[in-house]
Design a protein that fits this description.
YicC family protein; 3 domains; five-stranded mixed β-sheet; single chain; 9 helices; two-stranded antiparallel ribbon; hydrolase
């Protein structure tokens, strides 16, 4: 059996070695792998773009088309999301794929043509010396495959196995480089997401500090309006208990402490997914090879929901400014998360 030898070595033993975000990979990237051996030379190129699920598009040369199911299985073992285009080209050794001429068949055709000419009394119109070989080459059975049916079964299996090992080496090397590029891109994306997480945390702290003053300012505004209205209409001032009741109702409606708590919890959860926490649940998820992009996208939706609720309940212009900045950060994160596997 022929063993394939890989021409180009990877620059890293592990595509994710040393990454601060080992569970993250971008859905865009490319990789190229080459391998050569007695069966020929194989070049594999992998490219991918965003996609909700995993879509594998295979483009192979005719000589390896029968290996497409194996190639796709190998690709799906490593990737989980994205539209992935895989090109595999095999260049066979010189003369390996040239068809062979069946001399017996050519001779039989020539003799039969000569016999037909004799039976039709065509004389020397058709002889073995003036038969056009080019025409004979087009007749069935004259050209044979380089692997005729008569070839030993064990030999055919050995040739097929050598070809697959060559293709497998090329595809695995392309996958390694492809994953390395996607990991590097994911690190840059995660660092940008982390900056926005810090911005949201800072804004949350500011909102938490402003929140108690929202009720106080409302009470002062409400008292001033009531006193002015009663004074203009020569009415007795409102009882303090009525003012307290109205302020308490507003305080209940404008209380955002629960939303701030959930928002901070979602931020912590998102960080855990980004860095790939070592919890038992996370480890089980990584063993199953599940993509984290969908989970991050769900957390983004929850962040957006809590932020909208804070803005609508607080009813304060200063808090609204912080909410706007938080929503801008969430939108930036959403665009990046949608490109993560």
């Amino acid at each position: 059996m022929t063993q394939a030898s890989v021409r180009t070595q990877s620059t890293s033993n592990s595509p994710l070695g040393g990454s601060p975000y080992p569970s993250l990979r971008s859905m865009t990237g490319q990789g190229r792998g080459e391998a050569s051996g007695n069966a020929g030379a194989v070049v594999t190129e992998i490219r991918s773009v965003n996609n909700r699920g995993l879509k594998v598009i295979l483009r192979t040369s005719d000589s390896v088309s029968e290996l497409e199911p194996k190639i796709e299985t190998l690709i799906r073992q490593h990737l989980h999301r994205g539209s992935v285009t895989v090109q595999v080209r095999l260049t066979s050794p010189p003369g390996a794929d040239l068809p062979r001429v069946n001399c017996d068949a050519v001779r039989s055709y020539a003799e039969q043509l000569a016999e037909v000419a004799d039976s039709l009394a065509m004389g020397d119109a058709v002889t073995s010396t003036n038969i056009d070989l080019a025409h004979l080459m087009q007749l069935p059975g004259v050209l044979e495959s380089p692997s005729p049916d008569g070839q030993d079964t064990q030999e055919r299996q050995a040739r097929a196995q050598a070809k697959w090992e060559l293709v497998e080496s090329s595809v695995e090397l392309a996958l390694e480089r492809f994953k390395k590029m996607r990991s590097d891109e994911a690190i840059a994306m995660a660092e940008s997401i982390e900056q926005d997480l810090q911005l949201i945390e800072t804004r949350c702290e500011q909102v938490a500090k402003l929140s108690p003053f929202v009720v106080q300012r409302y009470r002062e505004r409400l008292r001033d309006r009531i006193e002015k209205a009663f004074a203009e209409n020569n009415l007795q001032p409102a009882q303090p208990v009525d003012l307290i009741r109205e302020v308490q109702l507003f305080a209940d409606r404008a209380d955002i402490s629960e939303e701030l708590t959930r928002l901070k919890s979602h931020l912590a959860m998102m960080r855990g997914v980004l860095v790939g926490d070592s919890s038992e649940e996370s480890a089980s998820t990584q063993e199953r090879g599940e993509a984290v992009g969908r989970k991050l996208d769900f957390i983004i939706q929850e962040l957006n929901r809590e932020t909208n609720t804070i803005g609508s309940k607080a009813g304060d212009a200063e808090i609204a400014e912080h909410v706007v900045e938080m929503k801008c950060a969430i939108e930036r994160m959403r665009e990046l998360v949608q490109n993560l596997e």
